[in-house]
Write a structure and sequence with these properties.
With 472 residues, the chain is of the alpha/beta class. It folds into two domains: 7-113; 126-460, no CATH class. Helices cover 38% and strands 14% of the residues. The strands form three sheets. The protein has a seven-stranded mixed beta sheet with strand order 4-5-6-3-9-12-13, with helices on both faces. A four-stranded mixed beta sheet has the order 7-8-10-11, with helices on one face. Strands 1-2 form a two-stranded antiparallel sheet. Strand 5 and strand 6 form a beta hairpin. The chain is globular. Keywords: Membrane, Signal-anchor, Transmembrane, Transmembrane helix.
């Protein structure tokens, strides 16, 4: 006989209540585990942003396991009519809110991995500011430094000229990242076309990229004016093409004192080969200030500094613009939409106390501030003509689907009279034509900043190292 008859019914209800509590505990435990797992994978993805580990597959796999686990719990409770609808609603909510929100969040995190360009500002207007972390290589760690630009080897006593960076007025310009640049250039090629400043620029790039990889010489000639370098791990090739006038040119005499340039004819040393390149960087300037005979349609149209009878005296202004026009025409006529043309504007020289062959030198040891000098005279004229021809060519190129980009580095380089070799590009006893070099740039030195400009411009133009499509 039951000693507690009033508790018999309560005992049945207690069992039912206990069963419901256990059921609810199982559901909420599973939900808690799912939420905790989701948060954990989100944190792991944050770590992945810095470590580069590919966790997207693991995340999907983890989500799949958690969803399957929750599905099993739900199936086991289907006989509980009172909970079935709630469980199905919970599954729907998790699938459409939890998982989808996580996927959306991961897509946003993936997009943030892509190196973003700076906010829009004029990166070419600014000042030089101290950078104690520079230089990023030395004349002993980089073997691709031309002897005449190896200033430290030849005894330059100061080193502060290597410790500056360019600061735009309204934003920051990131220091060149060799790994990011090589990722952007993976499977591509870049040609530097023009005078020895272009070669100076490419040698600077090789030294800066050496932190990531050294290239292999794949040149088809021993002539250092036509070198090719390949970065095997990235399948990226850089090449230089010596073409100081950008058009066909030939020496009139053995001394090279007078040059014939054919303003309407392509220089096939580079125009016949650029179709295979993805990026073409053009520069030119200093050589147009020399004695020149100008030709058009195979006839002499004028002469600069030659004093020939019955020959019209022409200054470099007309020939300079026409040479760039012909160079751009050669590129546009290719009809190859993959070629991106980049104009790197004129880099001023800094002779003081005389011209280059009359004792001129460049002995300053600090940059100018922007209010201490200005672009004027032939430096201004060269720069103006370059921009005019670039804009004219860009309009034609756009109609054919071609991309033109501008590296307007003239102002930045104008402020660096301290960055030239001067007399530290050779030993004192050597007899050099250019005894004091105030045209080229020491390596390391200010010309390394052209890499900062180049990478940032590529990013602004949408060239990135990551695909834009969603990864989920």
């Amino acid at each position: 006989m039951n000693q507690f008859p009033l508790l018999k019914g309560n005992n049945n209800r207690s069992k039912q209540t206990m069963s419901q509590k256990v059921t609810m505990l199982v559901v909420f435990s599973s939900l808690f585990v799912f939420i905790l797992t989701t948060i954990s994978y989100s944190l792991l993805w944050k770590i992945n942003e810095f470590t580069g580990l590919g966790l997207s597959i693991d995340i999907d796999y983890g989500l799949k396991n958690e969803t399957e686990s929750l599905k099993n719990v739900t199936e086991s409770l289907k006989d509980q009519t009172c909970l079935r609808n709630d469980t199905e609603n919970l599954r729907y909510s998790l699938r459409n809110n939890g998982t989808e929100n996580l996927r959306y969040s991961l897509r946003n995190e993936r997009d943030n991995m892509v190196s973003k360009p700076l906010k829009k500002c004029d990166i070419f207007s600014g000042e030089w500011v101290p950078n104690p972390e520079a230089p990023y290589y030395t004349n002993t760690t980089c073997w691709e430094i031309h002897e005449h630009q190896n200033c430290m080897k030849y005894g330059r006593p100061d080193s502060e000229f290597m410790k500056w960076r360019w600061k735009p007025n309204e934003c920051e310009l990131p220091i060149f990242n060799p790994f990011h640049f090589l990722e952007i250039m993976r499977g591509k090629s870049m040609a530097f076309i023009g005078d020895s400043i272009g070669r100076n620029h490419m040698q600077s790039m090789i030294c800066l990229l050496s932190r990531a990889e050294w290239p292999v010489d794949v040149s088809y000639t021993d002539d250092f004016s036509f070198k090719r370098w390949q970065y095997s791990n990235y399948n990226f090739t850089m090449a230089t093409f010596w073409s100081p006038y950008l058009v066909r040119a030939e020496q009139v005499d053995s001394k090279g004192d007078l040059i014939n340039i054919y303003l309407d004819e392509f220089d096939e040393k580079w125009t016949a080969q650029i179709k295979e390149f993805d990026y073409v960087i053009i520069n030119g300037g200093q050589w147009f200030l020399r004695p020149i005979v100008f030709y058009e349609k195979q006839k002499i149209v004028g002469c600069q500094y030659c004093s020939w009878e019955n020959v019209t005296h022409l200054t470099w202004h007309s020939g300079y613009g026409k040479a760039f026009r012909t160079a751009y025409k050669a590129i546009v006529n290719l009809g190859n939409s993959k070629v991106v043309t980049i104009l790197r504007t004129y880099a001023p020289s800094h002779f003081e106390n005389g011209v280059w062959d009359k004792g001129g030198n460049c002995i300053r040891t600090k940059p100018f501030k922007s209010n201490e000098t200005r672009l004027e005279g032939y430096n201004l004229e060269l720069h103006t003509i370059q921009l005019e021809e670039f804009k004219r060519a860009e309009k034609k190129a756009m109609k054919r689907g071609l991309k033109f980009m501008l590296l307007d580095t003239t102002q930045a380089m104008l402020l660096r009279p301290d960055g030239h070799p001067n007399n530290y590009g050779h030993w004192p006893q050597e007899n050099m034509t250019l005894a004091n070099d105030c045209v080229h740039w020491c390596l390391p030195g200010p010309i390394d900043t052209m890499a900062d400009f180049l990478l940032e411009t590529l990013k602004r133009e949408g060239f990135t190292s990551f695909p834009k499509k969603d990864f989920i």
